[in-house]
Design brief:
Keywords: Signal
Number of strands: 9
Strand content: 15-25%
GO molecular function, one term: hydrolase activity, acting on ester bonds
Organism: Roseomonas indoligenes
Protein name: SGNH/GDSL hydrolase family protein
Radius of gyration: 17 Å
Order of helices and strands: HEEEHHEHEEEHEHEHHH
C-alpha cells in the first residue's frame, strides 16, 4: 500500500465493466474533479504522437464542443513532439509572448492575431506512453509533472494530466498508468483525463471496435475519437452521448464510444 499512501487519502475502488463482466482493475480515485474553469476558451495540448494522430485530438475536441454549443469559442493549440516525454518539453517557452498561439487560422482558413489577455486557460499534458511506469523514467515523470504544473499555474492557466492508454498487447499497463497519473494529479492538485481507462473499457466490452493501429500503441480514428470524447467530457463537464459529431465513424460505433467515454469520466471523477 506504500504507493497508494503517496496518493493521499484517495479512495481505492473497483470499476466494474458494464454487462456484468470482471473488474477492469483496482483503481485509485482522483481527488481533483474539476479544473476550476467552467468553460475554457483556450486549450494547449502538450505531448506526442498520441495527440497528433488522425488530424489531432484538438480538432476532435473542438468538433464535440461545436456540435453542442456552436456559438461557443474555443481556441485550441497542439504542441506535439513524436516519442516525447515530459522532460522533452520546455513548457516555460510555450507561454512566452508573441510566440506559440500568437495567431489562429480558423476553419474558413482566415488568419487572425490572438488578442486574448490570457494565452491559455488549460494546459493538457501527456508523458510518453511508458514513461510514468518505466523503472528508468518514472521518477522523471514525477519530477516533471510537478515542474510543469508549477509553470502552467505561474502563467495563469490550469494544469491537466492526460492518462494515456495501455498497449494492446500489454493490458497490465492500464492499472499501472492509472495509478501513476492519479498520484500525479492528486499530488499536484490537477485534473486527470482518464482516457486509458476508457480504452480498457472498450477493448473489454467491444473488442471488435479497433482502437489501435498495427503497432498496438497508436490510435485509429476510433481511438482518437474516444480520447477526444473523454477529454471533452472531463474538461467541459458535458456528456458526449448523443452528439451529432461522429468524425465519419458509423453512428452506432460513435454512440458506443460516447457511452464509454461518459461512463468512464463519471466513475473516475465521481460526477
Amino acid at each position: 500500500m506504500t504507493g497508494l499512501n503517496r496518493i493521499g487519502r484517495a479512495l481505492l475502488v473497483t470499476a466494474m465493466l458494464a454487462g456484468g463482466g470482471a473488474p477492469l482493475a483496482a483503481q485509485p480515485v482522483a481527488q481533483v474533479t474539476e479544473t476550476g474553469v467552467s468553460s475554457p476558451a483556450s486549450l494547449v495540448f502538450i505531448g506526442n504522437s498520441f495527440f497528433y494522430y488522425n488530424n489531432g485530438i484538438t480538432n476532435h475536441v473542438s468538433e464535440f464542443l461545436r456540435a453542442t454549443a456552436p456559438t461557443q469559442r474555443l481556441r485550441s493549440t497542439l504542441i506535439g513532439i513524436g516519442g516525447s516525454g515530459f522532460d522533452w518539453h520546455d513548457v516555460e517557452s510555450y507561454f512566452r509572448p508573441n510566440a506559440v498561439a500568437r495567431y489562429t487560422i480558423d476553419r474558413n482558413n482566415v488568419l487572425s492575431p490572438n488578442t486574448d489577455a490570457r494565452l491559455f486557460d488549460v494546459a493538457v499534458m501527456m508523458d510518453c506512453s511508458q514513461c510514468p511506469v518505466h523503472p528508468d523514467l518514472k521518477d522523471v515523470f514525477v519530477d516533471y509533472a510537478r515542474k510543469h504544473a508549477e509553470t502552467v499555474r505561474r502563467h495563469g492557466a490550469q494544469p491537466v494530466f492526460f492518462m494515456s492508454w495501455a498497449y494492446l498487447d500489454k493490458p497490465e499497463m492500464t492499472a499501472q498508468l492509472a495509478e501513476a497519473y492519479t498520484r500525479a494529479g492528486n499530488e499536484n492538485r490537477a485534473l486527470v483525463i482518464p482516457a486509458g481507462l476508457a480504452f480498457a473499457r472498450v477493448v473489454s466490452e467491444r473488442p471488435d471496435i479497433g482502437l489501435y493501429v498495427a503497432d498496438k500503441r497508436h490510435p485509429t480514428l476510433a481511438g482518437t475519437y474516444l480520447a477526444a470524447a473523454v477529454t471533452y467530457a472531463a474538461l467541459f463537464n458535458q456528456s458526449p452521448v448523443g452528439s451529432g459529431y461522429t468524425a465519419g465513424l458509423d453512428p452506432a460505433v460513435a454512440r458506443t464510444l460516447q457511452d464509454a467515454a461518459w461512463t468512464t469520466v463519471r466513475e473516475y471523477l465521481r460526477r
